[in-house]
């Protein structure tokens, strides 16, 4: 197994991992992103994300997608959008290898924080994160405004 930075030609396999994650998270129909989106947004002159992949032989079996954020308290930080390992390959250390690569990247960049979300029912992931020294915040809530909500809100503003 090797962990490396993704290249553009990895994006079809990365998209398959994203779709598998959506199924795991009980949201099988929510993935709108395409291979073209991933290629365009991750490999342009101004890429919006970096992706690391875990590879066994020629197969991509895991991925971690990250991007920079700015905190008014900390400055430049990193967001771990998704850490995905194919179900058939879980429990073999691939997720931990990807996690280590992300944390090493953040450390090497001199960043003050790495942040990510975890579902409250994903107890295995929560235990892993806590063992690594991460703080799973109990008092903060993740807030999303989806496309439909955004549209409705803007339409109400324009009334």
TrEMBL record:
Query: Per the database record, which ranges form the N-acetyltransferase domain?
Result: 1-155
Q: Which CDD domains match?
A: NAT_SF
Keyword Transferase part of the UniProt annotation: yes
Cell membrane found in the keyword field: no
Q: Name one Pfam family in it.
A: Acetyltransf_1
**SUPFAM superfamilies per the record?**
Acyl-CoA N-acyltransferases (Nat) (SSF55729)
List the InterPro entries: Acyl_CoA_acyltransferase, Diverse_Substrate_AcTransf, GNAT_dom
Q: Which UniProt keywords apply?
A: Acyltransferase, Transferase
Q: Where is the signal peptide?
A: none
| Cited PROSITE patterns | GNAT
Q: Which domain of life is it from?
A: Bacteria
UniProt similarity note? Belongs to the acetyltransferase family.
Q: What is this protein called?
A: Putative acetyltransferase
């Amino acid at each position: 197994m090797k962990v490396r930075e993704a290249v553009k030609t990895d994006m079809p396999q990365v998209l398959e991992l994203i779709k598998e994650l959506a199924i795991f998270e009980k949201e099988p129909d929510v993935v709108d992103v395409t291979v073209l989106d991933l290629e365009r947004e991750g490999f342009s002159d101004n890429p919006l994300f970096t992706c690391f992949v875990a590879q066994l032989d020629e197969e991509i079996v895991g991925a971690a997608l990250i991007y920079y954020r700015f905190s008014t308290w900390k400055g430049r930080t990193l967001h771990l959008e998704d850490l995905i390992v194919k179900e058939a390959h879980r429990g073999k250390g691939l997720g931990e290898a990807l996690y280590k690569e992300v944390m090493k990247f953040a450390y090497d960049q001199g960043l003050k924080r790495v942040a990510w979300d975890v579902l409250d029912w994903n107890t295995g992931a929560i235990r892993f994160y806590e063992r690594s020294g991460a703080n799973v915040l109990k008092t903060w809530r993740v807030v999303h405004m989806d496309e439909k909500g955004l549209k409705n809100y803007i339409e109400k503003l324009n009334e």
